[in-house]
Amino acid sequence: MWEIWRLQKRARNGPVWATSSLLLILAVGAWPQSVPMCAEDRRTDAAQLEAPLAELVSWHAFWYGPEFTRRYKAGMRTDTTVVTFGDDVVLFMAQAGIMAEFKRLGDGALRAWSVSLIQQGSSNRREVADYMSLHVHDTNGGASRDSRFMREPAARSPGSEAPAPPPPCQADLTLRLLPLRVPDYMEIGEEPAELPSLLAIVRDDLSLTVRACGGTASAIVPFFGSQDPWVFVEVTKKGGSCDVEGTAVYRRDEQNRWLSAPKIEPSEPGSRIMKMIGSHAARTVSVP
User: Could you tell me the pTM of the whole model?
Assistant: First the structure.
């Protein structure tokens, strides 16, 4: 069943996800504001970043509106600071007004995680320091991420120890901003291969809610892409003790499995996201 979920805004204007309040940060120290430069084997080439970045910003502009990309200019070459630690790759582009976060998968590919705004007049150096101040050392001296990056620990045999992640490092490079476009799957209405597995977990969430509150529940699942950071789903719950209409957010875990949505976030029927879901609906799920 949906648990408590908070949608925060970054300190200096921009949407960013915060995890469940059930997760805690154990602050045993703070990252220094300066981050050492990455060795060659930990650097990510510009060519590996340009296309995933354009896809992520295109996706965000599609759902949130083009005003998000007012300083993103196709063809512009922008100074970029890339911070790497663990499987996180974070891009700071103050000139373009964007901070983008990716996860590096086991095969080396990058999965989009989130994107937020950088206030005009800021700098990459300032943004890196601000970002790293949100992170803390754990008791073993390794990197313990803030709540956005905390996840369930991997199962391991008794007595074994999880390897400590390498310390964070940064690299400076120049990225060429590629043109933005409406995602192809939205234009042609292509059902993704992952749709059946998402429909199954959406139905499970609806069933749990109906059993707890009574009444009926339905959900509209839009088209989505395999690299989208998350999927917005419109949920309507009627009757019983918990009527609500809003959106639920579905993410994948590191094994590409769908995670149950923590909460239905109430939304105005005329909101942009609700309109976009309705006009790009792939399937509807109803319970009972």
Answer: 0.77
DSSP annotation of 40 reads G
| Residue 72 phi, psi dihedral angles, 5° rounding | -85, 110
CB contact at 8 A, 88 and 31? no
Q: What is the pLDDT of residues 141-164, one digit of tens each?
A: 444 443 333 333 444 455 556 667
Give CA–CA dist 261/201, Å, rounded.
Answer: 9
- Taking CB atoms within 8 Å and a gap of at least 24, the contacts of 194-199 are 194/224, 194/226, 194/256, 194/258, 195/221, 195/282, 195/283, 197/257, 197/258, 198/224, 198/231, 198/250, 198/258, 199/283, 199/285
For residue 187 the two structure tokens come to 């234009």
pLDDT in tens, 73-98: 999 999 999 999 888 999 999 999 99
DSSP output for 254-283: TTS-B-----EEE--TTSHHHHHHHHTEEE
